[in-house]
Design a protein that fits this description.
4 domains, 2-enoyl-CoA Hydratase, Chain A, domain 1, 6-stranded mixed sheet, Pdz3 Domain, 5-stranded antiparallel sheet, alpha+beta, about 475 residues
Length: about 475
């Protein structure tokens, strides 16, 4: 039986209008010149209209025109870069209301790397961190739904939810070929922007977890406390800091640079824009070491690059993530919006941070990949918990004192035997780890907050570097007499 002749579809009725528009535009813009990008766009708009007309005429479903057009827009933006995206009215409203540092979620920064949804950095103490997610992990599924072609915003929406509800991620750890499923319970995420301590040898320590509106004020408050101390140097820890506000990064960098020194500049289709160190900043002349790793991104990279390029401090760690592009939101009709990447950030020496990341002055990986996996196994391990419970939260200080004690001190020898016994028990469980790694694992589980810092091998290396720098300064003073 022959089917009835289909009626002329709505999209097909638009074709003559689109073609007239195209011809009219061509007459006034292409007087003998080569075909311009605008001409190519108009030619392909007519092609898009043809495809839409064919869908309406032939496809077995009857999709809504709005859904088709928004799908076409999302596909178009996907060809640009991972961070340009379209917001319909509902998602744009939700995006605008995502403010502050408190929400129900997993507590990590994500991005797109090599077209895969990738963990940039989990925030310390959050469900993502406790579940063992690490920088560089690839998330292939969220609740059994593939993340191929997903936007960062949509992935974040799927992982957010009511505190106490679970979400299951299928994850490839870096260097692994087999995925694992990780079930994580959402929680209210409260991100502490700044942490600080005075370490041994009068070394000050500031960790910035994220660059937010209040970060510069929080750091200035810490500086006021530090000014009362006779400090030998400052460790600025930007490891696993996924970034934040550009204005906050400029404020922090200004504390260590001369007024009006270049912090960073942006370059795209628009004229170059320079961001200079602020004149009103509280300039600090402490000898400075900055710690970075592969989880340092965006605003963290801006601060690290400025300090490195101006020779203000020493960068130690691993090459940074390389995520430093400028996005701008453009409201559209009907309450929608589009976010477009309009520029990249460049360091004072002209390095495109987004493409290259920042290479430290001293590049070193303190824990091997296998040792990082072992440390993950040892998180909240019963043998370590039992060891701390039996010997006290100051056990690491006991071990340090025992190793410095005089020979044949029975108490000290007993402490060291207890430590070796616990290490041997782990070895029987086929858990092999270095002495530094084991102490770091213990430090994470004691109640002494300072242990986390003093037994962190990267911080210990920075302190040792200050000692070397101090010896050099003394030698130079001696030589000039």
């Amino acid at each position: 039986m022959l089917s009835a002749k289909p009626s002329k579809p709505n999209f097909l009725r638009l074709l003559p209008l689109i073609m007239i528009w195209h011809s009219f535009f061509f007459v006034f813009t292409a007087t003998g010149a080569e075909v311009s990008p605008d001409d190519e766009i108009l030619e392909n708009i007519s092609l898009l209209a043809e495809v839409l007309a064919r869908i309406e005429q032939e496809h077995l479903e009857n999709p809504k025109p709005k859904d088709l057009m928004e799908g076409a827009i999302r596909g178009m933006l996907r060809t640009l870069d991972p961070y340009s995206q379209f917001f319909d009215r509902k998602s744009f409203t939700a995006f605008q209301t995502e403010t502050g540092g408190t929400y129900g979620g997993l507590g990590m920064e994500i991005g797109i790397r090599r077209n895969r949804l990738t963990v940039i950095s989990p925030f310390k103490g959050t469900p993502a961190d406790e579940a063992g997610l690490k920088t560089g992990d690839i998330i292939s599924q969220i609740d059994n739904e593939s993340t191929i072609n997903i936007t960062v915003h949509n992935a974040a929406e799927k992982m957010r939810g009511e505190p106490g509800t679970p979400v299951t991620l299928t994850v490839f750890h870096e260097g692994e070929t087999e995925p694992i499923e990780v079930k994580i319970v959402r929680d209210v995420i409260r991100i502490r922007s700044v942490e600080s301590k005075i370490l041994k040898s009068n070394i000050a320590y500031i960790r910035i977890n994220q660059f937010r509106k209040t970060t510069a004020a929080d750091v200035n408050q810490v500086f006021d406390e530090f000014d009362q101390k006779n400090l030998r140097g400052l460790i600025l820890d930007l490891r696993s800091n996924p970034g934040g506000l550009l204005s906050s990064a400029v404020e922090i960098a200004s504390n260590f640079l001369e007024p009006d020194q270049l912090v960073v500049y942006t370059k795209g289709k628009r004229p170059r824009r320079d961001h200079l160190a602020l004149k009103e900043a509280k300039k600090k002349n402490y000898p400075l070491i900055v710690l970075v790793n592969e989880g340092s991104a965006s605003a963290s990279e801006i601060v690290a690059a400025a300090i490195k390029d101006h020779g203000r401090g020493l960068l130690m760690g691993q090459r940074t993530f390389g995520k430093a592009s400028v996005q701008q939101l453009f409201p559209l009709s009907g309450g929608a919006a589009v976010k477009l990447t309009i520029a990249h950030y460049y360091s004072p020496n002209g390095i495109d941070i987004h493409k290259a990341g920042i290479t430290p002055d001293l590049e070193e990986t303190w824990f091997s990949r296998s040792e990082r996996r072992t440390l993950l196994k040892l998180r909240d391990h019963k043998k370590i918990d039992d060891f701390i419970a039996e010997n006290g939260d100051d056990i690491l200080n006991q071990i340090r004192s025992a190793r410095q004690a005089i020979k044949d001190d029975q108490n000290s020898e007993g402490t060291l035997r207890t430590y070796r016994r616990m290490s041997d028990q782990l070895l029987k469980d086929q858990i092999t780890i270095s002495d530094a790694g084991l102490k770091f694992a213990i430090a994470r589980q004691t109640k002494n907050e300072i242990d986390d810092l003093e037994y962190d091998p990267q911080i210990a290396a920075a302190i040792q570097q200050f000692n070397v720098m101090g010896m050099g300064l003394k030698s130079n003073k001696h030589d000039t007499k």
